[in-house]
Each structure stands twice: as structure tokens, then as C-alpha cells.
TrEMBL record:
InterPro entries, sorted: Heavy-metal-associated_CS, HMA_dom, HMA_dom_sf
Database matches in Pfam families: HMA (PF00403)
CDD domains listed in its UniProt record: HMA
Domain HMA: start-end pairs: 19-84
Keywords assigned: Metal-binding
Keyword presence, Metal-binding: yes
Organism: Pseudonocardia humida
Protein name as catalogued: Heavy-metal-associated domain-containing protein
């Protein structure tokens, strides 16, 4: 079971000025998939780190600004995967 924050919810984290959100990505089934999604999201301006869980499909994005859901969805789509909306 994957527990995540809603796609549009961003919260401050420990580092000053940082925000995070966790989304679910469908279609990742190997380490190469994780790398493709992670690299795509890392290409978004302001993104500091991305962690993807292969088993659950959960992808956590840390950024120094609010990152719009549409930006994440576009990066995931460009990598060849689907952002699962809740």
C-alpha cells in the first residue's frame, strides 16, 4: 500500500525554503524505469532531489519552490510513464 500526499499538496520540510510532494507513477517496473522518471523530474527548475520507490510507484519530489502538478506530469509523460492522479 502506498501512502502519499495529494498531488497538489506541498509542505515545507526541514531545509529552509524546501517543499515536497509525493505522487504515484504507473508503469515503472525496473531500475531503468526509476532512473528515467527520476532524471526527468530532476530536470524541472527548482527540483533538488527525487526519490522513486519501484515497488509502490511512489515518487517524492523535493524542491526549493512550489512545483506545479502539471510540471511533474509533463516530465513523467516525457519519460514515457503516467502520473496517476487521485
Amino acid at each position: 500500500m502506498s501512502i502519499h500526499t495529494p498531488l497538489a499538496t506541498l509542505r515545507p520540510v526541514a531545509a529552509a525554503g524546501s517543499f515536497h510532494t509525493t505522487v504515484t507513477v504507473a508503469g515503472m517496473d525496473c531500475p531503468h524505469c526509476v532512473r528515467s522518471v527520476t532524471e526527468g523530474i530532476n530536470g524541472i527548475a527548482g527540483v533538488c532531489a527525487v526519490h522513486a520507490n519501484l515497488e509502490s510507484g511512489a515518487v517524492t519530489v523535493l524542491a526549493d519552490r512550489v512545483v506545479a502538478e502539471a510540471e511533474i506530469a509533463a516530465a513523467v509523460d516525457e519519460a514515457g510513464y503516467e502520473l496517476v492522479s487521485h
